[in-house]
Amino acid sequence: MNRAQKLLVGLLAVTLALACSTAQTLINGTPTPVPPTATGTPTLVPTATSTATLTAVPTLDWTPIPCDGEECIEACMERVEIIMQDSPFQGVETDFRDDATDYDLASYPVDGEEIGEMESLWVPKDYKLLQADLETHTRIWEYFTTVIPPEVRKRIDRLTIFTDGSRNKLAWVKPTEDQGELWTIGFDIADADFPPYLTETLVHEVGHLVTLDASQLALGDDNPLTCETYLLYEGCSHEDSYINLFYQQFWPDIYEEWQQVGEATSEAEFQTMVANFYKRHFNEFVSGYAATNPVEDIAESWTVFILEPKPRGRNTAEEKVLFFYDFPELVAYREQIISRLCSYVQ
Question: Model's pTM, two decimal places?
Answer without folding.
Answer: 0.76
